[in-house]
Amino acid sequence: MVLGEAFHRQVVSALAARLSELNRQAVLLFDPANVRYVAGVRLALSPLPTAACIWADGKVALLVPASALELAGQSWVRDVRHYDDAIDDIEPFRWMAREAGGPLLIDSLPAAAWQAVAAEIEDAVLHDLAGELRRVKSPAELALIERAAEYADIALERTFARLASGSTELEILADVVHSVTTLMRDELGEYFELVEPALIGVIQSGTRAALPSAPASTRRLSRGDVVVAEFTACVAGYHAQAGCTFFVGDPLRDVVSWVETAVQAQAAALESAVSGATAATVDRAARRVIERAGLAKAAKGVTGHGIGLARWEAPWLRASDQTPLVEGMVLVLRPGLSITGRTGARHAQTVVIEAEGSRVLNPRQERWARLEDRLKEF
Predict the structure, then answer these.
(1) How far apart (Å, rounded) are the C-alpha atoms in residues 288 and 101?
(2) What does the alpha-carbon distance between residue 37 and residue 313 come to, in Å, rounded to a whole number?
(3) Distances in Å between the alpha carbon of 315 and those of 278, 288, 320, 335, 367?
(4) CA 165: distance to chain centroid?
(5) CA distance 95 to 149
(6) Angle at 202 between CA 200 and CA 203, to 5 degrees
(7) Which residue among 120, 126, 322, 348 has its CA within the 20 to 30 Å range from the CA of 25?
(8) pLDDT tens-digit profile of 318-342?
(9) Ordered structural domains, the chain, with CATH
(10) What pTM, to 2 d.p., does this model score?
């Protein structure tokens, strides 16, 4: 429980206050990130449902299967209630609804379980109250995210060092993840993440760089390749991302222009990501740069997203998200281009919204500010 009991009690108090404002008796939190936000420990280690329940009077309880009692005991929450692991997959949700009472808010729920909850509580509504609260990070949370950003940057540096080796994407990725994870384990102590991977990443080269969701492959790097590398590090449950596009040997002129456009789009997103702007405003700023370069059809996916206890959090930097940006929000700015059949270009920075603008949490990426510094001789 790295952040301490006082932090998690403040979270519970804030949620209880919101429940009172909304005239709701309780909220059930099933999302593992929300449970951790309240309890200080991650409990989702099995397919059996686990929840945290907060009531409007400030009380809090963990609702867990019997097999999770030992882990739940590591939380600061003393009211831990359990059910029999052997009962059917719907009954735990009924039991949790009865324990919570109504009117009830629920952050997320499988469709099959919704009818069971509705049968117990007439007034139940889906509303991710904890997710909304998580958007603004405390100084203690931000310190963990900054540490994670440092390790994501180190992973990028070690990837760049390996680009001239003639290795495959998978070989480079495995080597980098192993070496950086070992470093994190040695340096972080209790902050090292044991529940989920401390570091994950993707390396895409050549035409595969045009596929943002493609995993690393057995493709061997060769002269003239564009290489997109992205890493997400996790410190004590909090995430940060770093990404960059590199060249192996001299790139073609049109490829350089595409990468430069992606860099400029990210710079525009950074400049517009200020308190009082909206998520849609940031998306529009990045897309305007891409459109001016005649590459509108190559801009696929969102411009970025929130990050914290989950790798992807609200707000989403897209045209439909009118969420106002406020101080303390942490975002990943990640505009990219996918030139089908040719290559792609993406860069990822983790930033925090502050009074004077956005502050980049990946200062080590400055070494690649000039495109010529991204070139690795083959």
Answers:
(1) 49
(2) 13
(3) 9, 20, 10, 15, 29
(4) 31
(5) 41
(6) 140
(7) 322
(8) 999 999 999 999 999 999 999 988 9
(9) 5-134 (3.40.350.10), 139-376 (3.90.230.10)
(10) 0.94
